[in-house]
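for the recovery benchmark. tokens below, seq after
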């Protein structure tokens, strides 16, 4: 049987192939951002230059409230993906997240696939590790991983849906909150807890904040389904179960609105999970998000055009966000959150349930 590091590397490359070539965002899954209607302002009394998109995160300035969320790492192929995405993030002034550093923990030689500081020396870079791996490694070993890549913070990912479908995945999810509490004490304000496409519920978000977490990424249903990705890798009964559950989760729009209501204004909230445009980032901000997170669109842009392709994609996203700000008469994200909006359809039903 191959060593664990080889298994992990092969799995990472398989994930990239599936995301590049298969339908990993089932069409029936929806973020419900289409149920958010922003109100047009025919007299905005704003110049485009008046719109302020810049923000600060983890003590560093960003030109726009956007995170290229963590996707990959742990193989030769993923090294190029990470470096080109990180370089584009640096040049465009947005944040960048590394994929899971599990492969690096298992095989230190894989650290090179997570090494991006030479191409992204100034922007926010997030390390990344799954909750189960963090629990097994312990705080000191986890800190060494983030320090080794010069990360500004750790993104701790929660992915029980993916793990249950993954043939070699975890099956025991006990003790998670105890691990989060230890990491929150160790990292302080440098810890982000994120889901991976199934969304954060208000109950879980509230408990995480009570443990000291100050940054959350809802990563809701509507984009890449990692249950679907693992279903495509599985066979037999596990594949059939994964197919049934590839639409499992809390839609991104519902997760943003419900989590913001649950945790209050003093927690940084990232809206990711099927966010595909600057218009959708604007809708997420209107619901209470501080930043929008995007993965698959940026990966596909990198695959098609390298750094230049990613920069072009980011220009379109940021340009659309800025235009929506003008068309709603909003000079800042705070102004946008105070503007009227209309919520319809299934999103309205989700919010009524709470």
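predicted aa per position
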């Amino acid at each position: 049987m191959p060593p664990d590091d080889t298994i992990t590397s092969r799995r990472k490359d398989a994930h990239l192939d599936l995301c590049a070539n298969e339908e990993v965002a089932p069409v029936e899954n929806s973020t419900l951002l289409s149920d958010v209607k922003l109100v047009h302002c025919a007299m905005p009394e704003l110049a485009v230059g008046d719109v302020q998109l810049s923000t600060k995160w983890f003590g560093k300035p960003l030109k726009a409230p956007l995170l290229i969320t963590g996707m990959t790492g742990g193989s030769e192929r993923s090294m190029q993906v990470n470096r080109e995405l990180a370089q584009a993030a640096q040049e465009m002034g947005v944040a960048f997240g590394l994929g899971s550093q599990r492969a690096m923990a298992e095989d230190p030689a894989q650290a090179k696939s997570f090494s991006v500081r030479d191409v992204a020396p100034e922007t926010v870079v997030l390390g990344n590790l799954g909750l189960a791996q963090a629990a097994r490694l312990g705080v000191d070993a986890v800190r060494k991983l983030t320090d080794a890549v010069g990360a500004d913070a750790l993104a701790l990912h929660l992915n029980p849906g993916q793990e249950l479908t993954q043939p070699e995945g975890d099956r025991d999810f006990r003790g998670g909150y105890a691990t989060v509490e230890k990491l929150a004490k160790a990292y302080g304000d440098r810890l982000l807890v994120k889901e991976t496409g199934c969304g954060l519920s208000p109950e879980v978000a509230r408990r995480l904040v009570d443990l000291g977490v100050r940054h959350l990424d809802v990563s809701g249903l509507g984009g890449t389904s990692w249950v679907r990705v693992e279903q495509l890798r599985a066979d037999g009964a596990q594949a059939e179960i994964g197919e049934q559950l590839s639409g499992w989760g809390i839609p991104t729009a519902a997760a943003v609105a419900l989590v913001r209501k649950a945790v209050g204004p003093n927690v940084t909230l990232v809206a990711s999970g099927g966010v595909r445009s600057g218009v959708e980032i604007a809708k997420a901000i209107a619901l209470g998000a501080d930043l929008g997170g995007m993965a698959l669109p940026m990966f596909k842009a990198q695959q098609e055009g390298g750094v230049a392709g990613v920069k072009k994609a980011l220009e379109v996203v940021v340009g659309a966000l800025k235009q929506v700000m003008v068309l709603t008469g909003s000079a800042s994200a705070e102004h946008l959150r105070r503007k009227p909006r209309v919520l319809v359809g299934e999103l309205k039903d989700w919010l009524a349930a709470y």
